[in-house]
Amino acid sequence: MSDDPSAAGLQLGQATPLPASPEAAQLDRVPNPHADTDYLARFTAPEFTSLCPVTGQPDFATLVIDYVPGAWLVESKSLKLYLGAFRNHGAFHEDCTVGIGRRLTALLEPRWLRIGGYWYPRGGIPIDVFWQTGEPLKGIWLPEQGVAPYRGRG
């Protein structure tokens, strides 16, 4: 196998436009070089946006994705492009958050995954959404997600 990521069909290392939709986005995975070790990997997306499916107005969130990888890691550029594809996508907060968690779980088959969606208020009510695949693994250092409960975030 070549060391060139594009030879493996990955988006890494080449110009890649923002996908038109989350469904059209290509999420890439790469082999975990430490598949024999349980550890936590975290991605934080502090500028996540999507559209309200009713009004078309933008919604904003901080997403925190924690997972204990198995054989696969998510390739970070493809994750960034996938999350960016939500900018023109109409979906409720719950649908975005849970859908992202489920798609990553299907792709990666992690030992454990959780996602926290910390959404800014619309209509005066913040809606935070949390989803995980099951109980956290014993022995894994699981820090707080670092996003304070809503008290006027900013």
Automatic annotation (TrEMBL):
SUPFAM superfamilies: Tetrahydrobiopterin biosynthesis enzymes-like. Keywords: Cytoplasm, NADP, Oxidoreductase, Queuosine biosynthesis. It is found in: Cytoplasm. Substrate binds at residues 74-76, 93-94. Residues 1-31 are annotated as: Disordered. One of its GO terms (biological process) is tRNA queuosine(34) biosynthetic process. Pathway: tRNA modification; tRNA-queuosine biosynthesis. InterPro entries: GTP-CH-I_C/QueF, NADPH_dep_7-cyano-7-deazaG_red, QueF, QueF_type1. It catalyses: 7-aminomethyl-7-carbaguanine + 2 NADP(+) = 7-cyano-7-carbaguanine + 2 NADPH + 3 H(+). GO terms for cellular component: cytoplasm. Its EC number is 1.7.1.13. GO terms for molecular function: preQ1 synthase activity. The active site is at residues 52, 59. Catalyzes the NADPH-dependent reduction of 7-cyano-7-deazaguanine (preQ0) to 7-aminomethyl-7-deazaguanine (preQ1). This is NADPH-dependent 7-cyano-7-deazaguanine reductase. It comes from Methylobacterium haplocladii. The gene is queF.
